[in-house]
Amino acid sequence: QVQVVESGGGLVQPGESLRLSCVASGSIRSIVDMGWYRQTPGNQRDLVATISTGGSTYYADSVKGRLTISRDNAKNTVYLQMNSLKPEDTAVYYCKIRVRATLVIEAHWGQGTQVTVSS
Q1: What is the rounded CA–CA span in Å between residue 27 and residue 12?
Q2: Residue ranges of the alpha helices (H) in the chain?
Q3: Rounded CA gap, 67 and 81, in Å?
Q4: Cβ neighbour number for residue 37 with a 10 Å cutoff
Q5: What is the pLDDT of residues 13-68, one digit of tens each?
Q6: Is pLDDT at 102 greater than 90 in this prediction?
Q7: Cα separation values, 44 from 18, 37, 70, 74, Å
Q8: Which of 91, 93, 95, 97 lies closest to 117 in space, CA to CA?
Q9: In the chain, which ranges are E strands?
């Protein structure tokens, strides 16, 4: 079993920063990539950013220049540094880890962490 746990969410004012963390543990042979998604009530879960084992990154247009994804391979941890936060960044942020199993690649999700940007 693979466990994925996010932390670091909270309530901040517009323009402030937050850093989210996500740790994967358990029966992990190798991690393919790690990513952050976000979801607001009544809407689908949207991709925010991903990072591969080699460090290649992808960002949604709405967060480019403000959010930065990074990872610590030794700790199976991925981070999301969120700067210049806007009210529209308010959402539940989920971490997804894709791991290589025997014959397939498996996706594992965390429980989510709430980020609220409000004055």
Answers
A1: 35
A2: none
A3: 6
A4: 21
A5: 999 999 999 999 998 888 999 999 999 999 999 999 999 988 999 999 999 999 99
A6: no
A7: 23, 10, 24, 32
A8: 91
A9: 2-7, 10-12, 18-26, 30-39, 46-52, 57-59, 67-72, 77-82, 91-100, 105-109, 113-117
Tokens for 68?
A: 């930065």
What's the pLDDT at 1? 87
pLDDT at residue 25 in the model: 93
Residue 101 predicted with pLDDT over 90: no
Structure tokens at 45: 């879960």
pLDDT the model gives residue 27: 85
Cα distances (angstroms) measured from residue 53 to each of 35, 43, 90: 11, 29, 28
d(CA 87, CA 25): 32
The whole-angstrom separation of Cα 36 and Cα 19 is 12
Backbone angles phi, psi at 87, to 5 degrees: -55, -35
